[in-house]
Design a protein that fits this description.
The chain is about 90% helix and about 0% strand. The protein is mostly helical. Helix 1 packs antiparallel against helix 2.
């Protein structure tokens, strides 16, 4: 939100006597803060996606193990040897 930073910079610059310079400083600092926020947000999204993927893998493995146990029990019930 560089416009918000520019507006604050204009106000601060007007008080100091140079509204144009204040607007430039406010806009650039607003852009920097906005960039940092976007980077933090992307990092949080990436972590959330990774956490979701990890849960899906764990769920898949648990269900697969359940299936393998049931399948082995079925085969052993029919006198097959399961390793």
């Amino acid at each position: 939100m560089p416009q918000g930073g520019a507006l604050v910079g204009v106000a601060a610059g007007a008080i100091a006597g140079n509204a144009g310079k204040g607007a430039a400083i406010g806009a650039s600092s607003g852009a920097l803060v906005g960039g940092m926020r976007r980077r933090i947000h992307r990092k949080q999204q990436k972590k959330a996606e990774q956490d979701r993927a990890n849960r899906e893998v764990a769920n898949y493995e648990a269900r697969r193990n359940e299936y393998n146990r049931a399948f082995s029990a079925c085969l052993e019930g029919r006198d097959y040897t399961v390793r």
